[in-house]
Design brief:
With 400 residues, this protein is an alpha/beta fold. The chain has two domains: 205 residues, Glycogen Phosphorylase B (Rossmann fold, 3-Layer(aba) Sandwich); 183 residues, Rossmann fold. Helices cover 47% and strands 15% of the residues. It is built from 17 helices and 13 strands. It has a seven-stranded parallel β-sheet with strand order 3-2-1-4-5-6-7, sandwiched between helices. The longest helix has 18 residues. The protein is globular, with a radius of gyration of 23 Å.
Amino acid sequence: MNALQSTTKEDARAGRRQPVILQVLPALSTGGVERGTVDVAAAIVQAGWTSLVASSGGPMVRELERAGARHIELPLHSKNPLVMLRNVRRLTEVIREHGVDLVHARSRAPAWSAMAAANKTGTRFITTFHGTYNLGLWGLKQKYNAVMAQGERVIAISNFIAEHLHSVYNVDPARIRVIHRGVDVGRLDPSRISAERIIQLVRQWRLPEGARVIMLPGRLTRWKGQAVLIDALALLGRKDIRCMLVGSDQGRSKYRQELIDRIHARDLMEVVHLTDQCNDMPAAYKLSDLVVSASTDPEAFGRVVVEAQAMGRPVIASAHGGAAETVVPGETGWLVPPGDPRALAEALEIALSLPEPHRAWMSENAMAHVRTHFSREDMCAHTLGVYAELIDVQTAAETG
């Protein structure tokens, strides 16, 4: 328990009113934004504060409510201007009814409604900037995106995003707080993965005994770099490995077919395999000898790279964006120029040729690196610290 949580729990025991925090996002389906919302909501409850989340609902609502937070269902996923306008009224009512002290917006459409409601009620308003977003023709999308830069504090999920905020949206660095995403290091613990889970995945993926496994997790979209990895494997020229491209095409059937054609053209049918989403990613990481993130566009953070290191797996990542902040070259993995199959092939050869003692050393480094810098607990503590910058906890308690 950190000092802020300890202080607020003492206030709660003394009967003083604790802050009420409202997070808003489109829906509570799966994803990094949603996971961060639920994690922070749970931390708010653990601190003794009141935790509210407004969204259009989804499968993670149950987890949110189990943590002690309250979900308020509103059509915040809608980009229809009339619905967004009605959401201003709805959120204004929520803020007043529950005595909300601070609104935290995590996505653009709900942020527009939430900012208007916060302004109407005099409530503190912050945002988390989760990605670079498409700027669109003539900067039209940039104006829509700009709401995410309007918080009294703007949380950036990486230094890369912080620089983007400053350079593209002219956000004063004094308003920016860099809080890297955090992962659940308890769930991502190699010692907790049973042999049965590994065996089940080996059978599902039909892996031959003794094959070295390279995995690239990520939805099938061009910028994730699956094609770059296929070309690198062709240059590598090894047939004793298996490469699993793990992720749904989400309707991008044309790109999936392009990848299949590329695999055939490079005579890699036995080496490279496409599989849809994996329901047991911790087991998939443990089964892999090496995890690759070959994104050709910068990742805002690069969750896969951090999760793999948490599981003690060396990684190869593109040397740009948030991923470049999460890998220690030569100690937890390697960074290569984006979109360069030859450089990636060279890194693959080095990684696959590591002596076992060196590999074990890198594995320990990777796990310690994540536990020190990218844990869920640190992310939540820093986020509550940002809340406390804007709402004087003691004042809120005494005047409630």
